[in-house]
Write a structure and sequence with these properties.
By secondary structure, the protein is an alpha/beta fold. It is 40% helix and 13% strand. Helix 2 packs parallel to helix 3, helix 5 runs parallel beside helix 6 and helix 6 packs across helix 8.
């Protein structure tokens, strides 16, 4: 009898343990939208990242103050993605390639209201052209493919057909992360018809992006705060709700929640602001809240960590190849003799990484007199090519044929001896 009771107790304990859910890790991504829309917003976003809890931002390729934003991003080494814009301002692609996206003036986008009203009439090829043009601008500006892209005024989730087009382009261009603005509390409360509609549309296209290898956070917040001001307690309480609600239906060990914010300094009538939203005093109030010294402590006290790196499970493993280029192999006979198996090893390593969907990063030297610390050493090794510059060009890398990058792989130019010196490599591997 005693043995039976003991066995029963053990069985009961085992069942209880199995039912008990392992504590999940909560990681918060705080995104600042509209980088490049105006200089006041740009300054506010920089401040929110450097002194507050904002963990990343996304830039408008057609923003009025995009040049100002680029300078700040490079100066402060900011984590920047692309804020895809199909609704406001002028297109990046040639006018003839995006006609269905434009107003009757044939120059500017239709605006968010008309875009949504006519979304089923838009030419999908026009959308593809503009998306690729904005990604190309980002790549030409920052010398790498944007790791994440979110949609200005949620244009990327406006319909299933639009999501299919954009997610396919993301896959082909090597974009791994996007925003799915599906907010649980908002859907539950029905406090805003437009925002609720956006949230439902986002939920409907999540699998479309996922099927094309584009990840997103499991939880989202921020629609509730659009056009409104909020304090630390409201912010933390809302985020906590999204985490706990998601944890009930999600078994992932780590739950990511992205919150959308729009901080900015006091706007000036300098002609760079687009609309009343940008000019609103709520931008300043939002900045103050996000920079409040008590914010991070309030989050941590509830078991919520801030994300300080790349927000994609698909990017947790990476292969970094440094200097696998013709100048250090094909043109160096001594090295070929000493390391004859080098091409074979690199080929096998790349195959291994690609089959497992690793992020592959190629780092190549920039041979330019004005910025390359390596150039004098290069001239010493190759006296026959003294004075011959070979500037870094990510679209035409001088890498060995056995290590040539695929379309979705990243190529970074370095101007010094070390791969992480004066490059954005750290952005990918933090």
């Amino acid at each position: 009898m005693s043995i039976f009771l003991l066995t029963s107790a053990l069985m009961a304990t085992t069942i209880s343990i199995r039912k008990k859910k392992k504590r999940q890790k909560y990681v918060l991504i705080v995104s600042a939208d509209d980088f490049g829309i105006s200089e006041s917003r740009n300054r506010g976003i920089v401040r929110a990242i450097r002194r507050g809890v904002v963990t990343k931002t996304s830039i408008l390729a057609n923003g009025t103050a995009r040049s100002h934003a680029v300078k700040l991003a490079l100066k402060h080494n900011l984590p920047v993605g692309l804020h895809l814009n199909l609704t406001e301002g002028m297109p990046i692609a040639p006018i003839s390639c995006v006609k269905s996206l434009l107003r009757d003036d044939g120059k500017t986008f239709r605006g968010k209201i008309e875009f949504r009203a006519r979304r089923r009439e838009l030419n999908q090829k026009d959308i593809e052209n503009e998306v690729r043009a904005q990604i190309r601008w980002f790549r030409d500006t920052f010398h790498h493919t944007p790791i994440w892209i979110d949609g200005h005024q949620h244009c990327h989730i406006a319909s299933l057909e639009i999501a299919r087009t954009i997610s396919r382009v993301f896959k082909e261009e090597g974009v791994r992360w996007t925003r799915i603005p599906s907010e649980k509390r908002l859907v539950r409360s029905r406090s805003c018809a437009v925002c609720s509609s956006v949230s439902e549309e986002a939920a409907a296209v999540r699998e479309t992006y996922k099927s094309n290898g584009v990840d997103s956070s499991q939880a989202f917040a921020g629609l509730t705060f659009c056009g409104n001001s909020y304090d630390v307690s409201t912010f933390v309480e809302h985020v906590e709700y999204e985490f706990t609600s998601t944890s009930k239906v999600c078994d992932d060990e780590t739950i990511y929640c992205e919150i959308m914010t729009h901080p900015g300094e006091k706007a000036k009538h300098d002609g760079t602001c687009w609309d009343a939203f940008d000019m609103s005093p709520n931008r300043v109030r939002e900045l103050k809240t996000l920079c409040d010294p008590s914010m991070e402590h309030a989050l941590l006290s509830r078991g919520i960590e801030l994300s300080r790196g790349v927000e994609s499970s698909s990017l947790q493993r990476a292969l970094i190849l440094v200097d696998v280029q013709v100048d250090f192999w094909t043109n160096m006979k001594e090295i070929q003799q000493e390391f004859s198996q080098f091409p074979t090893h690199i080929t096998r390593l790349l195959k291994f990484a690609r089959q497992r969907n690793y992020l592959v990063i190629h780092v190549q030297t920039d041979y330019t007199k004005t910025r390359s610390l390596w150039f004098p050493q290069f001239e010493r090794f190759h006296p026959e090519r003294k004075g011959v510059e070979m500037p870094f060009d990510p679209s035409k890398p001088r890498l060995e044929s056995f290590a040539f990058p695929l379309k979705d792989e990243i190529v970074i130019g370095k101007t010094g001896f070390a791969a992480g010196l004066h490059t954005n490599l750290i952005e990918y591997v933090v």
